[in-house]
Amino acid sequence: MCSSAGALVSTKVNLCQECGKEFEPAPELAQMFPLWQLVRCLSCGSRERPREALVTVDPVLETTSGGPDHGIFVGASCDPNPGPGGWAAVRVLGGAVVREVFGEEPATTSSRMELRAVIEGMRMASPAERVTVYSSSQTVVNTLKDWAPAWARNDWRRGPKGERVSNLDLVAEAYRTYLGRPNATLVWLTSNGPSKWARYAHALSRSYLFGAA
Asked: Is CB count within 10 Å lower at the N or C end of the chain?
């Protein structure tokens, strides 16, 4: 049988909606979420990622095993900066990928990709859901948790000179998304550390380098 991974719905039928094969959810997922059921097997769930992206992410899966194994992990890259860049968001339950999304822009900055990554990552969670979102950008985490409230009250201006906030379009969008998920916890988790899924998200964000996104 196929291993489990895919979208989550409230159903007890273990039947992949794409390939039609029966599959069993991982025991730890069944224990953690008894009312949830995966509807796509791992093979079909991974098809959201183009084949070329395996060049960047497979080595991470093979060589890294530490860090949290539950939550939403986001990563971004831009090489050179400014220049072409990419972002990625990966949702993990019990060490299994539930969903992953990623994208690219031909001319951008690392800051913009980090903001886009956290926006798309938070959108993986429903508004009332309790979830931890791990961002590889400490600046983004500080922005949304500590700085944005004052900026918003000050018409999105910062500092003693009242300078306009940089990347305001994405900062404001990220802040609105964050406020719309009051039960979400935003945590900084470096992509250079031992966390498997933080490094995975970062590697996936670099798929654009291989023409995969």
From this structure: N
SS3 176: helix
What CA–CA distance (Å, rounded) separates 211 from 213? 6
| Helix, strand, coil shares, percent, the chain, to 5 | 40, 25, 35
Torsion of CA 59, 63, 67, 73, to 10 degrees: 0
Q: Which amino acid is at 63?
A: T
Residue 138 CA to residue 187 CA, distance in Å, equals: 8
The CA-based angle 128-133-135, given to 5 degrees, is 150
Q: How crowded is residue 116: how many other Cβ atoms within 10 Å of its Cβ? A: 25
pLDDT tens series, the chain, 213 aa: 333 333 333 334 456 655 677 766 555 445 544 444 455 555 554 444 443 444 455 566 666 667 899 999 999 999 889 999 999 999 999 888 889 899 999 899 999 999 999 999 999 999 999 999 999 999 999 999 999 999 999 999 999 999 999 999 999 999 999 999 999 999 999 877 778 899 889 988 988 776 544
What is the amino acid identity at position 76?
A
Q: Let me know if 43 is exposed, middle or buried by CB neighbors in 10 A (0-12, 13-18, 19+).
A: middle
Helix (H, G, I), strand (E, B) or coil at 67: coil
Two tokens at 151? Answer: 């900026």
The conformational region for residue 209 under phi > 0 = left, psi -120 to 50 = alpha, else beta, is: alpha
